[in-house]
Design brief:
The complex is a heterodimer of chains A (250) and B (524). By secondary structure, chain A is an alpha/beta fold. Helix content of chain A is 40%, strand content 15%. Chain A has helices spanning 15-28, 43-47, 58-62, 92-97, 105-110, 130-138, 150-165, 185-192, 210-213, 215-218, 222-225, 230-248; strands spanning 2-6, 33-37, 73-74, 80-83, 119-123, 141-146, 173-180, 206-207. The N and C termini of chain A lie close together (12 Å). Chain B has 3 domains: 3-194, Hypothetical Protein Pfu-838710-001 (Beta Barrel); 203-353, Alpha solenoid (CHAD domain), CATH 1.40.20; 369-524, CHAD domain (Alpha solenoid), CATH 1.40.20. Classes of the chains: A alpha/beta (250), B alpha+beta (524).
């Protein structure tokens, strides 16, 4: 089982769109896949027409006192399941603090699915906190959508610093350019000569595409309702990049 | 959970569809035809695990579902471009991990084929999310195994979406109210019955209920006939050579036959006995090299994994060499099986077994009650094992252990032939004890033979310039590893033998096979 997170401290960079589309692509290829919507805003759950609600609230679930398996919902797509968001996830740090090994809890919870799913995608909330530490611990790879702008790259360096400070494995970090617009000079410059610290930069960038915004109206992954859209084709290429990178990891 | 209903002949599929549409929010898929095949190993390993493996060919895709007899999935369904032959042909993942230990080295074979016209209805909630699937099936048994193509029950299956049980329960209630009958049996079980296939009907166990008072020659013919049937059942598979276990079962039946001929003495005329002993020895001989190579190839991953990681790729040329040799030996075996000699043996052996026994016989054991012949013979071999095994020390040559292993095998076969004559509980207990000792002796023999054979293969590869220096070195390391295992099994022999020869087992052996028949009856 490979656990792949879409993560960034910054909001609105395309984390959910990436998680939703890549998860759908994985399942379409025949791999049993789970997507866990960890963001209290519940956008991934919304895209799949699933209520962002956990019976009994998120606390018991996170602390392992309620069966995680019972909260899983099947999506409209074969082999793709979703663990919905819950508004109480805004307090996830507090829930995690109440466990024996707070930074290890997500890993512990996910272990039970190792025979059931081939991929687990974690759609993460935009912050750097105990939740993020759990994500760094539990994942095989962390996809970091990055807009080719100064501020966006600055947040990436903040993540890197956090990793270095806590002696975490930076090879897990897979940045990729997202919402790119080659008409903008800054985007062009940053994409053509990427900064040195973007070590595992994925070769595929996801262009800005108004079709991605329509996911909310269709309530479905882009690769499903507009498979020929530019961004949809790029998601497919990105998924191939991610697969080939993660297959080399131990 | 999966709920299935049978649609009676009078109920129309189109009518059913419209009444579901009138009462629920549904989205319809255009009807399509799929081809469903039930797969299992030749010896029904999946069925024995109370499960069914179904492949649905839907256009160019194969959808593989492994479910319990009650219809619950063992693991998520799998989409494939082509149907795998063996568990190891599946892509890495939970499906393969769970199926491999059940199926092991056996090939998946189609057991029954059904063609289904399916009408899929997606049940939606108010967010237009799919919460259940209703699949109406018009089923037809395809022409196969002498059975004509014919209509099967039409069925309706409700497949709930995970986390949304209620809507499926509501639809099930609705269908029941509309006169549909809930169905327990899987469609594939019904289809198997129609082609006269009985799931789980193959076994290499003798499964005979013998009469203790029946004369021994007649009983022996019954036992030998059953062994011949096992051989014949595995004949085609042995010829095709894809699944190694056909040859294995074929060989075991030959070995048991040889054991029966040599161990149960003075029941058949000497001339007949000598002929068939010679012919079955030939059958053993022609099947032996192929099986040895099968065993090396089945063990190959273990050999490889026991080498240091850096050396592992260097042993691979040995696998290629073994595969080539296996093909040569298989061809030789098929040639032998196509020979007149082979055909003649089986034909005359079958005729001899079907021929009624002569009323009078001068042979010592022929007209004796089976029970007394069986007990005498088993007791005699058992005493020999106790005596010879007790003399073995750390310095005893390996050949003595090999002889003891052969005697244990003879004893085991005799106990299997005649097991129905003795109280099940006790014969099982003694067989278990014997099995443990046999495992130790068998491992010892296997390691010893493998060391010699791999040494020979190594020399052959060296002569034919088939292996690089690294390959030959890896093979030497493999031999060293096997030598260590050989020493280990040898050092464990004494403990295993002492357990087998423990006082309470000796007592039980005596009571079953040496005391008077009357006192043995009291055990029952």
């Amino acid at each position: 089982m490979k656990v792949i997170a879409t993560y960034n401290i910054k909001g609105g960079v395309g984390k959910t769109a990436t998680a939703v589309n890549l998860a759908r692509l994985a399942a379409r290829e025949g791999a049993p896949t789970l997507i866990w919507d960890l963001d209290p805003q519940g956008a991934a759950s919304y895209y799949f027409r699933i209520k962002p609600k956990i019976k009994g609230g998120g606390k018991k679930l996170i602390q392992g006192k309620r069966n995680l398996e019972r909260s899983i919902r099947g999506t409209d797509f074969e082999l793709l399941d979703l663990l919905p968001a819950d508004f109480s996830y805004r307090n996830m740090d507090i829930f995690l603090e109440g466990t024996k090994k707070p930074s290890h809890q997500l890993y512990k919870l996910l272990r039970q699915f190792k025979n059931e799913y081939e991929y687990v995608f974690l759609d993460c909330p935009p912050s750097i906190s105990l939740v993020s530490e759990n994500i760094f611990d539990a994942t095989t790879a962390i996809l970091v959508p990055t807009i080719p702008t100064t501020l966006s790259l600055r947040t990436y360096t903040q993540i890197l610093q956090f990793f270095n400070k806590h002696d975490l494995d930076t090879t897990k970090l897979l940045p990729f350019f997202c919402m790119t617009d080659r008409r903008k000079k800054m985007h062009r410059t940053m994409m053509d000569s990427p900064a040195e610290y973007l070590k595992n930069l994925m070769p595929t960038a996801i262009p800005y595409d108004s079709k991605v915004e329509q996911m909310g109206a269709h309530r479905a992954p882009l690769v499903e309702f507009a498979p020929n859209a530019r961004a949809a084709r790029c998601y497919e290429a990105l998924w191939n990049d991610v697969k080939s990178y993660t297959s080399q990891l131990k | 959970m999966r709920i299935e209903f049978i649609v009676q002949g009078s109920q129309d599929i189109e009518q059913l569809k419209s009444s579901v549409q009138e009462n629920f929010l549904v989205r319809l898929e255009p009807p399509r035809t799929v081809f469903r095949t039930h797969y299992d190993s030749f010896d029904w390993r999946l069925y024995h695990k109370e499960s069914l493996l179904e492949d649905t060919r839907d256009g160019k895709e194969h959808i593989l579902v492994w479910k319990t007899l009650k219809g619950e999935n063992y693991c998520p369904r799998m989409k494939l471009r082509e149907m795998p032959k063996f568990a190891w042909d599946l892509p890495k993942g939970p499906f393969r991990d769970l199926l491999t230990p059940v199926l092991e080295m056996r090939e998946l074979t189609p057991k029954v084929k059904v063609r289904s016209r399916i009408h899929v209805m997606h049940l939606l909630n108010k967010d237009e999310k799919i919460v259940s699937q209703i699949i109406l099936q018009e089923n037809n048994l395809q022409r196969q195994r002498g059975a004509r193509s014919q209509e099967l029950d039409n069925r309706t299956t409700i497949v709930p979406v995970r986390g949304y049980a209620k809507p499926s329960i509501e639809v099930a209630r609705f269908l029941e109210q509309h006169g549909l009958t809930p169905m327990q049996d899987d469609l594939m079980i019904t289809a198997l019955n129609l082609i006269d296939a009985s799931p789980g009907d193959y076994s290499t166990k003798l499964q005979l209920t013998l009469d203790p008072e029946m004369r021994a020659d007649r009983t022996m013919k019954i036992i030998l006939r059953r062994l011949l049937d096992i051989m014949l059942t595995n004949e085609d598979g042995t010829r095709s050579g894809t699944d190694t276990e056909f040859l294995h079962d074929f060989r075991v039946a030959i070995r048991r036959t040889r054991s029966a001929l040599s161990q149960v003495k003075a029941v058949f005329p000497k001339q007949t006995l000598d002929r068939y002993k010679r012919e079955f020895a030939w059958l053993g001989q022609i099947t032996s090299p192929g099986r040895d190579l099968d065993v090396y190839l089945l063990n190959f991953d273990d050999y490889r994994n026991n080498l240091p990681v850096g050396m592992q790729p260097h042993i691979d040329p040995m696998r290629d060499f073994l595969i080539k040799q296996q093909a040569i030996e298989h061809n030789a075996l098929v040639k032998a099986m196509n020979s007149q000699r082979y055909r003649r043996i089986l034909k005359s052996w079958s005729a001899f077994l079907d021929e009624p026994v002569k009323v009078r016989s001068t042979l010592r054991n022929a007209t004796q009650p089976t029970i007394s012949v069986a007990r005498k013979r088993i007791w005699r071999i058992y005493k020999g094992i106790l005596r010879d095994g007790g003399l073995i020390t750390q310095s005893t040559p390996a050949e003595v252990l090999h002889d003891l292993r052969k005697d244990c095998k003879k004893l085991r076969y005799l106990m299997e032939f005649f097991r129905s004559l003795f109280p099940e509980k006790y014969i099982e207990q003694l067989t278990r004890m014997l099995k443990t000792l046999q495992t130790n002796l068998g491992d010892h023999q296997d390691y010893d033979v493998q060391i010699t054979s791999i040494n020979e293969i190594r020399s052959q590869m060296q002569t034919q310039e088939n292996g690089t220096g690294e390959t030959l070195l890896a093979m030497s390391m493999l031999i060293e590893g096997l030598q260590a295992k050989l020493r280990q099994t040898r050092s464990e022999f004494a403990v295993q033998f002492n357990t087998f020869a423990a006082k309470e087992n000796r007592k039980l052996f005596r009571e079953l096979f040496a005391s008077t028949w009357e006192s043995q009856k009291t055990l029952q």
